[in-house]
Amino acid sequence: MEASAWRGLAFTAFLLNFVLVCQLLLLQPLVSASDGILGNSAELFEKVSQNVKVKRYSEALDDLNAAIEADPKLSEAYFHRGSILRQLCRYNESEKNYKKYLELKPGNSAGEKELSQLLQAQSALETALKHFDTGDHPKALEFLDKVVLVFSPACSEAKLLKIKLLLATKDYSAAILHTGYILKEDESNLDALLLRGRAYYYLADHDVASRHFQKGLRLDPEHGELKKAYFGLKNLLKKTKSAEDNVSKGKLRLAVEEYNAALALDPNHLTHNVHLHLGLCKVLVKLGRGKDAVTSCNEALNIDGDLIEALVQRGEAKLLTEDWEGAVEDLKSAAQSSPQDMNIREALMRAEKALKMSKRKDWYKILGVSKTASVAEIKRAYKKLALQWHPDKNVENREEAEAKFRDIAAAYEVLGNEEKRTRFDRGEDIEDMGMGGGGGFNPFGGGGQQFTFTFDGGFGGGFGGGGFPGGGGFEFHF
Ligand SMILES: *[C@@H]1O[C@H](CO)[C@@H](O)[C@H](O)[C@H]1NC(C)=O
Ligand SMILES: *[C@@H]1O[C@H](CO)[C@@H](O)[C@H](O)[C@H]1NC(C)=O
Hints:
By secondary structure, this protein is mainly alpha-helical. Helix content is 71%, strand content 0%.
């Protein structure tokens, strides 16, 4: 009884062993290159190559794994497996396979070459990552393109790094193109969805960006970066809208806060922030905060130097800061870019007038009287100053005195005349009054030093209608 049981067991063991041996015998001709049946292993490697060509890397690897399991001495299979793993940038595994190959075929030159290329690719990827981390984007791209993507065209880590580099160098359309390649092969690639969404985001194509983030989040609702990108975008749009709504409701101070909050969300989002800076600049102009407005408009113009609206607003802001020349300059170039715009022309005229006004002399100041001074006060001030600054009495500082004297006379010419004084107070053009804007009234007449000014009421008997006969000197009798 016992003996027969043992026999049965032994027989079972024999049968199992037989089956195993048969399997091996059946398999061996399929995969072994060493036993001379080359045709079949050539067929396997042909199939592997075909799969690699159509990027079915895992199928190719499965075939090679099975072959090696069946014949651990099948050297070519290690070689092929090393090559596929290298293309996938699974460098450590690849290295093991090439080493095994070289173990089976010591000194094989193809194997040595492959191994050294593999190590080159591996170190290039490490270098590229290092440069990316330190922000040296051109170097990183160089290593990726020249080495990694040549030896490891199926390396998703390298492809994604390349797209990150394209984003970092603001080449958004290239980033869209390259994420497209990845998504064509794997439409649920979360990294590619994230990066493609970001490219659209930075192009301010916010709807398309949002759709990419949402698609990724449907596949993985807990994906941290996708969540951050999606909700960050939502928040930005919400803040922007809130700022704009506050503007249209006339709540300018709240709008300023909302604009600043929106701008703080993503300083890199230039295509969107340019509008935020401009909106903020406009509100600040309305609030009369010229200096801050200039800063905001500068930010907008730094991003887009052709933004005419920002140029106009900066012109307005400069008027507020009394930078008349700057205002005229900005509005002039805006008017040149947009000649049909009547509002710009109107603003330019305002600025030009303000500039002119700023250059004209303040006759009140020159006579040292207030704007409300009476006729008598003005007359008194004039007499006193004319005496004080008469060139004949200032031989030491004749040039200075002549200039002063000219101004004093011109001031009296305007302020001593009711009509001219009124026009001056209204800010009317001085040149309309027949005086040179910059130089002011010239009491010395045309050439020489003929002094021909008059004033009603007389100046004592002294020099009524008097002049200063030529020859370079003045006569001024009292
Ligand atoms: C590859 O091997 C190196 C050591 O040789 C190790 O530092 C590295 O982490 C390995 N990489 C991977 C992806 O396993
Ligand atoms: C204005 O801004 C506040 C936040 O400061 C916001 O709560 C509010 O909704 C905004 N108003 C409008 C009309 O959008």
